[in-house]
Each structure stands twice: as structure tokens, then as C-alpha cells.
Amino acid sequence: MLHTINKSPFEKNSLESCLRLAKPGHDILLIEDAVYAATSGTIVSELVEAAMEDKNVSVLGPDLASRGIDEARLLKGIGIVDYAGFVDLTVKNDKVQSWL
Amino acid sequence: MSEPTVKRFMYINRRAPYGTVYSVEGLEVALIGAAFEQDVCMAFIDDGVYQLKKDQDTSATGIKNFSPAYRALGDYDVTRLYVEGESLQARGLTEDDLMALTYEDEDDDWAEKPSIRLVSREELSGLIDQQDVILHF
Description:
The complex is a heterodimer. By secondary structure, chain A is of the alpha/beta class. Chain A has one domain (2-99): 3-Layer(aba) Sandwich (Hypothetical Protein Ychn, Chain: A).
């Protein structure tokens, strides 16, 4: 299962709800304003790090660049994918859900 | 003819750029307010601080990068951009992560000065209280 999240974790609880209900082994891709959740030193960093222990969390690179976030500022171990990688994730998973 | 009324306007920006249209619209409205020679300042709180993040590069997404437009604010006499320190801190950011926005001070031989003013939540609360008109984006 692939979960995409596109809302800022500081404004909406989409990230929190997704992480609460996603299963170990699931793929989680942060896109649009959700990419801020991938940065270190924030009030949601611990939540994301805990999810990374048993889920595959990645972030969409072009959306990071748009927002001026350098890869060096990301949580350690988080994957960065480009648009082709996004397509690969959707092909790899039989189901995709978008947390809005 | 009587002097035009000048009101103190504050535009409060609470949204991240690109994900919604709020921030780009807020910037346009602030510039319009300043063009009508009102006393305009802006506040950046919550996700609004991300609007001022430096190094925004939208080339891979095809979205227009509107962050350079904040540099025009100084020319429209919008010289006070208040950034709430607590909002930066919650997002793992510091003032060094923000664009270097400046204005030329006509009362000080056009010296170039920083427009961004880091304020505490308490200071911002006081500033909001001093305004005549407060608009949110």
C-alpha cells in the first residue's frame, strides 16, 4: 500500500492520521506541503522518525526544491524520489491512498 | 482638500507557499495596499514563515517561483516584515534560513536596512493590537 500525504503537518492532521493507521511495511510518500514533515528539528520530527522504524518514508524532491529545503536538512534515512520514482511507487503498490 | 486617511494595515500570513494560493494572493494584496499609500506591515506566523525561506527553486515542478517578488516590498515602502521566532523554532528554522530582504531608508541617506524583524510571540501580540486593519491570508 502506498500512502501519499500533501498537507503541512503544522496545519492539518493528515500526517498524524496516516501514520496512526498505516501498517508496517507500507510506503509513505510526502508531497506538496507535506514535505516540511521530512525536515529535521521540527515539532513533528519524532513522529516521522518513529514511523520510519517500520515503514518506508520518502519525499518528493521537486517539491522540496520548490520550498527551498536542502537535502542536508532532512531527517536521516528518509528517501528522496523524483517524478519517475513516484510512478515506480504507484506501480509497485496494488493500492494508493491520498491523505488530503 | 483634506489629507487622505492613512490607516495602519497588517497582513498576517499563516500559510506555506505553493500548496495553496493564499500566500501569493496575500503578497499581491499587501502590494496593492501599499500602492494606496497606507501604512502597511506584514507578519509571518505558523507556516507563513516558509514563504520567506531562501533558495526556493520551482524549476522541476513548473510552478512559478514568486519568492523574488518579496524583494519588491521595500520599494513599495513595506519595510516591516515581522517574523515570529516561535514559529521558526517549531519548524527547525532560524533567521539564517530566510531570504535577505532589505529596504532603503530615506530618512537615513538611503542606507540599506533589513526588512525582516524577528519578534517574539508576545511582541507580535502587541504589534497586532496597534493596527487599524488586520487581514489574514
